[in-house]
Amino acid sequence: MTTDTTHQKLLDLLQQLEDELRGQSLWSAVAPSPEAMASTMPFMYDTLKLQQWLQWVFLPRLRAVIEAGGQLPCQSHVHPLAEHEWSQPVEFDKRQLLALLQGIDDTLNQCGLTPPDATSSH
Fold first, then answer.
1. Which entry of 3, 96, 98, 105 is 20 to 30 Å from 75 by CA?
2. Could you tell me the residue range of the domain that residue 96 belongs to?
């Protein structure tokens, strides 16, 4: 997968994730407090719900990296975190959210496996 197709696939998945969060009323019009956003814990789990972290941190940061043409992370493990976080009964349908997070993880985890430029000859 080329960088352009990886970026486009990720943008599509990120938009689907946003749409799913909105569709399930998990999207907030009100940003978390500056104190909550200042958390230094992984995924800000001490101050934000996972869906808040996805909306206010994960989606904007990945989109910004893609738009800037920056280096994407080559490891992502958001899906296992979401599976754990949402293992108890929740008030929303987690199936599509988990599928989208798995797709994002899979796409990001493949970036380290991209072969060098195949057009160069030996």
1. 96
2. 3-112
